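Good morning N.,

You mentioned wanting to compare the apo and holo forms, so I went ahead and generated the holo version with pyridoxal-5'-phosphate. This is what I fed in:
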Amino acid sequence: MNADLGVEIRGQGSGERGDAGSLDARALRGRFPALGRLINGHRLVYLDNAATTHKPLAVLDAIERHYRLSNANVHRGVHTLAEEATAAYETCRHRVARFVGAADARQVVITRNATEALNLVARGWGARLGPGDEVVTTEMEHHSNLVPWIMLARERGVTLRHVPVTDDGELDLAAFARLLSARTRVVAVTAMSNVLGTINPVPEIAEMARRVGAVVVVDGAQSVPHLPVDFATLGADFLAFSAHKAYGPTGVGFLVGRLERLEEVEPVWGGGEMIREVHLDRATWNGLPHRLEAGTPNIAGAAAFPSALDLFEELGLGPVRVHEQGLVAYALDRLSSLGFLRVHGPLDPARRGGLVSFTDPDIHPHDQAQVLDNLGVAVRAGHHCAQPLMRRLGETATVRASFGVYSDHDDVDALVDGLMAARRYFGS
Ligand SMILES: Cc1ncc(COP(=O)(O)O)c(C=O)c1O
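and this is what came out, ligand included:
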């Protein structure tokens, strides 16, 4: 049992999250057309998976199939195409519920992305908060789990508190305990840092938060595609994530919630689909989840996402995690042994997901990323939408290499070769 994730990680799984042996990353690459590209004469080594993953042929085919054959609006028509489109859209909801261990498909609200899901909680559930209430987030959050709360604080006079990050790149849980009080109404935390890779002990955090009666909001943008996550045992009230970081299309995300908490979320967007009855001067709302999904959604994207979930089902999240943990261990080892990098985040690969951020004190991250790109290696350089964390680390930017199911040791070797080439190029 991995207590941090609230689930058991098995080498061999069963059911929705799948059976698999070890991952054959090179063979998997063959399913992702973009990974067959040459960049500046080199094989594309794609290490920007935390920003977005590539899409397998099965997902691309599903998008095309939807538009070619079943294109229609959802929930509104009785004709065959409308029924097919609605069935595909609702299948996505059911598959996501099963994927994250939510018992009822009504617990899944389909959004545009994780950011929209988090904003929906902050605005829709946060509408009940006011002066005197406190929201606790952390110093390691992505802006998507900071800015909506800042907006709430501005609008409703709520007080914000932040859990500090230790020098080891972990949340300071003793400080967290001291921040909690009867005033704490929300604890909003990432399950995995997009900069440090740190896997936070969400069940423990949720347990502490619940003792003071706070609602627990989990940003699963980085965790859901890479770690087995089980909503039923996570302890969260809300869980947000995006399809595009999980081999699915852009423009589709999810807010998974406990039904009783979702019932408390005020609609943030009004319009078609979310109503029961409308008069000129008043309206009543539809039931869950539709009252939180106004207007025409990304139907093709939702219709295609189950094809990405098929991949997880085939491989199993346990083996995916083992594969990516092995890669991060190898990357930490190789990057640290270079001797000239500051490598951020926990040293223990078991404490982190499949990404590594680092800085060369002599070369700007953008310059490193440019040299790497010349060699076909795609990494992310910048503040990674985590400016408060950058300040905590004393950096303005880092380079981040992040892995997916198709990454392997050759990719890490290409990264290391590129970093040494950057040193030679800049004469460091
Ligand atoms: C931890 C974390 N949260 C939230 C987001 C936002 O995801 P999206 O842009 O898909 O809404 C990201 C994206 O990088 C992320 O890494």
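Residues 94 and 105 are 5 Å apart (CA to CA).

Happy to go through it together on a call whenever suits you.

Best,
F.
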